[in-house]
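Lab channel / #folding
Pinned by the channel admin:
"Please post every new chain as: sequence first, then the structure tokens as a reply. Keep commentary short and put observations after the output so the thread stays searchable."

First post following the new format, from NK:
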Amino acid sequence: MTARKEARHYRALFISDVHLGTRGCQADLLLDFLKYNDAETVYLVGDIVDGWRLKRAWHWPQAHNDVIQKILRKARKGARIVYIPGNHDEFLRDFLGTHFGGVEVVDSVIHTSADGRQYLVIHGDQFDVVIRHAKWLAFFGDKAYVTALALNTTVNMVRRRIGLTYWSLSAWAKLKVKNAVSFIGRFEEALSDEARRQGTHGVICGHIHHAASHMTHGIHYINTGDWVESCTAVAEHHDGTFEVIRWVERAVSETSAGPAQEQPVAA
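Reply from TO:
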């Protein structure tokens, strides 16, 4: 007999790189995550909506609309929702400082953890050299990335038919490419340097679709990951510890063998 997933409540949740409006978006998995996870504050750390793709071709199935409605419902129930636009939803940067539907729109924000540590929360594209200095190249790379995600979708259709769980071919390939690994390292260092410059204990960001939590550069670097490849989010527990939640792994674990033991990451 399988166990039912348990609902959890956190002090804060951090979600980024959902890319609503694209075929690669794992909206159903995110809806499942939002159903079983609540928080006092939910930070949407950029690229929630993919304006780049929507400009080229409209793709907005019901599940994508349901994600928006689910988030707005959390706001109506009292959760603080903070939206920090990224490069793919940069059109929202025209509305910084405004509120709509209970959602605050800001460029970045300082989050204070339960134990008093301060974290810079920012999408991170501002520290991506390609985005800053060669945006045309970023658009070119985006098209190649979409092609990889299309292949990823085909692979997972086959996996579902033979009873296997979701697996990201594109995420696996990215970590096998030396240049990609080098880029991740430079990005982490740049964001850590910015957190140090602003006098914070750590930084929480997105952008590169690579979830992480470590102290490699003397700063608590946290990346929320994404809901295209890895289906990850970051949670702050009520004691101030942070955890990277890998939703596919947890969902499988909880429904097959009961609730898994959480392993919060303390800085």
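NK: The helical segments are 27-36, 51-56, 62-76, 129-133, 135-161, 169-174, 178-197, 247-257.
TO: also worth noting, The first strand starts at residue 8 and ends at 15.
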